[in-house]
């Protein structure tokens, strides 16, 4: 990889896991395009990176909208540098039991996770192929193995794994790898919202989760950022099409 080819895109980069990955890639020397639905949401992440001496830019885009993705990627490539790392992290939850789940709940979750990742990967891959080097990191979840109240999210995260393996097959000959990270319980705003939905305090919710995890703690966004950093590295070039469950122990559906 040329020293000049150092631009990364992180979707859903405004907070949580996406923010941690953005900051870690900036620490690794990448210029980071922090993408989120509202550009203003990215200000804290971008500001933190810049304050630490890194390079980052906020980009507002709905990853599930084709034109918005094309415009965002073209802007990043033109103004910020050829993107050769893509982290598809953007995601939402609309949890409910199957008989209560609406078509809108189903469609919105599948759209952001799967359609969004497809559109981003399709837009960015041409830049990677031209550069002869690229890294795609997709965020799956242990919910891909099944999780009560998450038929939509589980289907989306399982789909991310098949999508990742297919990208690895299609893009490998161009010097592009694709891997997926499947986090277990990570302490974020999203898991806090889940605790609220089930009527538990977040501290009790985390303690209950930690009691079921072999390492006896829940994860934090930096745990996932470290793994994303490895997958994005030069040294990870012989690892592609893999799904790593970062869950503090064996993943159990």
UniProtKB/TrEMBL annotation:
Catalysed reactions, semicolon-separated: a (3R)-hydroxyacyl-[ACP] + NADP(+) = a 3-oxoacyl-[ACP] + NADPH + H(+)
Q: What is its main location?
A: secreted
> What InterPro entries does the annotation carry?
KR_dom (IPR057326), NAD(P)-bd_dom_sf (IPR036291), Sc_DH/Rdtase_CS (IPR020904), SDR (IPR050259), SDR_fam (IPR002347)
Q: Which UniProt keywords apply?
A: Cell wall, NADP, Oxidoreductase, Plasmid, Secreted
Question: Which residues does the UniProt record annotate as the domain Ketoreductase?
Answer: 6-184
Q: What GO molecular function annotations does the UniProt record carry, in alphabetical order?
A: 3-oxoacyl-[acyl-carrier-protein] reductase (NADPH) activity
Q: Where can this protein be found?
A: Secreted, Cell wall
- Which GO BP annotation is one of this protein's? monocarboxylic acid metabolic process
Note one Pfam family from the annotation: adh_short_C2
Q: Which domain of life is it from?
A: Bacteria
NCBIfam families recorded: PRK12826.1-2
- What family does the Swiss-Prot or TrEMBL record give for this protein? Belongs to the short-chain dehydrogenases/reductases (SDR) family.
What's this protein's name? 3-oxoacyl-[acyl-carrier-protein] reductase MabA
């Amino acid at each position: 990889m040329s020293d000049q080819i150092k631009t990364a895109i992180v979707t859903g980069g405004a907070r949580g896991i996406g923010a941690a990955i953005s900051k870690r890639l900036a620490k690794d020397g990448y210029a980071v395009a922090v993408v989120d639905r509202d550009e203003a949401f990215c200000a804290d992440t971008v500001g933190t990176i810049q304050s630490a001496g890194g390079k980052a830019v906020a980009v507002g885009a709905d990853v599930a909208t084709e034109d918005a993705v094309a415009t965002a990627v073209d802007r990043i490539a033109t103004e910020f540098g050829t993107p050769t790392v893509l982290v598809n992290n953007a995601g939402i939850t609309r949890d409910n039991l199957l008989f209560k789940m609406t078509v809108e709940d189903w469609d919105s979750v599948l759209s952001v996770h799967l359609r969004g990742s497809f559109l981003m990967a399709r837009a960015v891959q041409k830049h990677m192929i031209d550069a002869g080097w690229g890294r795609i990191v997709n965020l799956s979840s242990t919910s891909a193995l099944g999780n009560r109240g998450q038929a939509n999210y589980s289907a989306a995260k399982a789909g991310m794994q098949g999508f990742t393996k297919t990208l690895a097959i299609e893009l490998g000959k161009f010097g592009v790898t694709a891997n997926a990270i499947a986090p277990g319980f990570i302490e974020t705003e999203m898991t806090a919202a889940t605790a609220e939905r089930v009527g538990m305090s977040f501290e009790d919710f985390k303690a209950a989760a930690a009691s079921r995890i072999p390492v006896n703690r829940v994860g934090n966004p930096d745990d996932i950022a470290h793994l994303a950093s490895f997958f994005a590295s030069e040294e990870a070039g012989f690892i592609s099409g893999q799904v790593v469950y970062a869950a503090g122990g064996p993943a159990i559906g």
